[in-house]
Amino acid sequence: MYFDTHVHLNSEQLYENHQAFIENAHNNQVEYMVVVGYDLASSKLAVELANQNPNIYCAIGFGPNDCLNTTQQDINELEQYMSDPNVVAVGEIGLDYYWDEVGKEKQQEIFQLQIDLAKKYDKPIVIHCRDAFEDTYQMLERNGHRGILHCYSGSVEMAKRFISLGYMISLAGPVTFKNAKVPKDVAEQIDLNSLLIETDCPYLTPHPFRGKLNEPANVVYIAQEIAKLKNMEIENVARMTTFNAKKIFGIK
Ligand code: NI
Questions:
Q1: How far is the CA of 38 from the centre of ligand 1 (A)?
Q2: Per-residue confidence of the chain (252 residues) as pLDDT tens digits?
């Protein structure tokens, strides 16, 4: 049984056929998933999808590339959904210095407001971090909360630092890419106790389906690659990553 910790069934590309994707996931033993928001509309849709489907949960938040005009009032509106039992995290939130549409200060301000929100409701955070590892680390260290580095693309050493703060590392499609050395190193060297798996669909389709639309059923290929790199049975990877996901999201 698999747990895809990061899907965007709320995205334009997947929403229309979301029932078919959920069915295909179940046919491939992908029983659980978390639908992740990145702005108000996608967060509301994530809540809706979670409330309509068993074993589907959601995270709500404003992503670093989608917060240019986000205000405290928007965060207040988001807060109205925080008591919903299917909202298991605040996310995706974080810092992304690869794109420069939103300034660093604005990203940090909105990230902080949402860390505060997560703390208030005692929910973990799902972090999007790209080309901003040191600043992200500093903010997490200052805040002392818990959560997930989603689609982790940093080094082994950086992963260990996040883990020492109480965070988990989630691996996505890039771990299956033939020339992706760093994610493979992370899969190999980081203990399974701290690892999660995700598709981040519709993006980052794993090998051998690169170029096609990604969907939750493909999370099996992430588990398969981790099992290969760790030289263990895929069933162990499936069991442990599902256990880890339920633990961090507080799912019984
Ligand atoms: Ni995402």
A1: 8
A2: 999 999 999 999 999 999 999 999 999 999 999 999 999 999 999 999 999 999 999 999 999 999 999 999 999 999 999 999 999 999 999 999 999 899 999 999 999 999 999 999 999 999 999 999 999 999 999 999 999 999 999 999 999 999 999 999 999 999 999 999 999 999 999 999 999 999 999 999 999 999 999 999 999 999 999 999 999 999 999 999 999 999 999 999
Cα of 176 from ligand 1 centre, angstroms:
18
Report d(CA 31, CA 43) in Å as an integer.
21
Residue 234 Cα to ligand 1 midpoint, Å, equals: 24
Separation of CA 153 and ligand 1 centre (Å): 13
117 CA to middle of ligand 1, Å? 19
- Cα of 58 vs centre of ligand 1, distance in Å, is 12
| Sign of torsion over alpha carbons 74, 122, 3, 1 | negative
Contacts of 159 (CB under 8 A, 6+ apart): 149, 152, 169, 186, 190, 194
The domain locations on the chain are 2-249
Q: What CATH code is assigned to 2-249?
A: 3.20.20.140
